[in-house]
Each structure stands twice: as C-alpha cells, then as structure tokens.
# Entry
Amino acid sequence: MRRRVASSPEKVSGLVPMADILANTVGIILFILAFTVLHTGGVLIPKRLPMEREDADRKPVYFVCYEKRLLPLDGNLRDKLFKGLGTPTYETAESWVARFNRARVEDGFFTVEAGGEARFNRGAYQSIAELVLFASYKPKADVGDTQEGLRGESSLFNARIKGLSKDGRFLYFIVYPNSIELFREARDYAESQYGIASGWSPATEGEPITFDLSGNGGGTAIVPKPQP
# Structure
C-alpha cells in the first residue's frame, strides 16, 4: 500500500507565489480571448472533429484525405505483398523477411511498400523467431475526388458508398493536416445522403500510412520444428 507523506509547512507556503503566477497568466489569457472576440464581432466558430470510431461488428471502408483530394484506399492491396513468398519457417525467417522487404505493389491511388524484421529469441528450452511486418501506403498526387466534385454522381466516392450496408460497414477516414475541410464534407455527405457512420484518424504530413501486419503491434511467432 502506498503511504501518504504530509508536506512540511515550508513546502506548502512555497506554492503561494506559483498560484499567483498562474492566476495572473489565466487572467492575461482571458483578456486576450475577450479582445479577440470583440475584434471579430463576437463570432466564435467551433472546429469539432468526431472521435475515432471502433466497431467490431462493422467493417471499415478506407478513404484518405490527402492534398485536398479524397482517395479510396484498398485494404486488400497489402495482401499482394506476400505473393510468391511462401510460408516462412524458423530456419528461413531471415531470408524470408529480406525478400518481403523488397515487395512493392500499387494501384491508381497508392504505392505500397513492405517492411519488417525477424527477431530471434534463442532460449535454453525453446527458440522463437518473431516476424514484425508492416505495409506503408504512399498516396499518389493529383488523383481522387476534389471537395467540389465528391458529391457528384460520377465521383469515385459516390460510386463506392452508395451500395454499402450502413449496418455492416462504416467509413474510416485517414486525414492529412491540409485536408480537414475535405474530410468534413465527405463525412457529412455520407451521413446525410446514405446514413453511413464514420470514424477517422490523423495522418502525419509527409509520412506514409502504415498498417501493422503482425497483429496488435506484436509479431508473428514461429517456433522451430524438430529436424527429421
């Protein structure tokens, strides 16, 4: 059990000047905020983003908001990184990962590159090779729907969501910093027009979108088999 230690009077009294400083700081911030509201005519526009959605009963349909364009992301494209590699064993784990790291696939919207490593844990009673694998999606430029065009009948966005089951699927947006307004437009349109729920997560500017292929951030363990 953790014990509570009482502070000495000297230490408690030392907090008073800090409280004064904090009070003064808060007062200055409130003054600046009040001045800003007066200067803008008292109009405050909230910028709200929805919380990330987690729903085990529904499958996500991915879209990426990148450079003010909406790109459909094919989650199954990453599976093609394994084509022709076969099944790794403990003995072939290192060479298998080396070949996996050279894999590269693409479609009209993304280039997908493989990455990973084999981590060996050699014990006295059991040895394990752990494969830590991921796929990096790099968006292509000047493809996908613009904010002005995504509501059109011929848009890629419209074509992909109008037949979706709102009970079995939901939209998952991955949003780069310069495309937040595009995300809002797409989310609101999907909800108002088709009743489809959505979730989102932010992407880092200049970085690809990375999917963990090992499961929950861990690795896929491979135990060596007895030699015949």
In short: The chain has one domain: 59-222. Residues 26 and 163 are 52 Å apart (CA to CA).
